[in-house]
Amino acid sequence: MEGWWFGAGLQRTALPYAFMIGPDGEFGIHAGIWVPLHSSIEGWVESVALADHARRCARAITTVTGEAVEALQLDGFEPVLDVAGHADTWWRGTDSLVAVYRGEAECMLAPQCRTATVYSGLDEWGLEGLGA
User: Fold this and answer.
1) Inter-residue contact 56 to 124 (CB < 8 Å)
2) What local confidence, expressed as pLDDT, does residue 132 receive?
3) Which of 19, 30, 53, 112 has the smallest set of CB atoms within 10 Å of its CB?
4) 119, 56 in Cβ contact below 8 A?
5) Residue/partner pairs of 40-49 with CB below 8 Å, 24 or more apart
6) CA nearest neighbour of 83 among 104, 69, 103, 99
7) Model confidence over 18-47: pLDDT tens digits?
8) Which portions of the chain are predicted below pLDDT 70?
9) How far is CA 115 from its chain centroid?
10) β-bridge partners, 27
């Protein structure tokens, strides 16, 4: 591992990896393998805020894991650029948001840990200003 990394605060639960800030300012996880989740700390903060707001406003929330993540149809969705996603990304549709989390699966070499959360029923939420 080249460059420098430093911890991104104390963890509040037991996890098999540490949250870290990378040499180029990325926010990610490390457990023998470095996986940047977002290209910036701000991107990570945006993703946390987006998840909180979407969770409160969505009419339905569906979670899929493993191979089902790769089967999601994201044609017609636009990336949410504010989250500066690398391994973890967000996608915007006409009335829905999809959060795709691949970072933990990459870090732990465990593809079954891939997860996506689909927030639907956000048609009145004003998604037109979010994203690309």
Assistant:
1) no
2) 47
3) 112
4) no
5) 40/84, 41/8, 42/84, 43/82, 43/83, 43/84, 43/85, 44/83, 44/84, 46/82, 46/83, 46/84, 47/83, 47/85, 47/88, 47/90, 47/99
6) 99
7) 888 888 899 999 998 999 999 999 999 999
8) 1-14, 124-132
9) 9
10) 21, 38
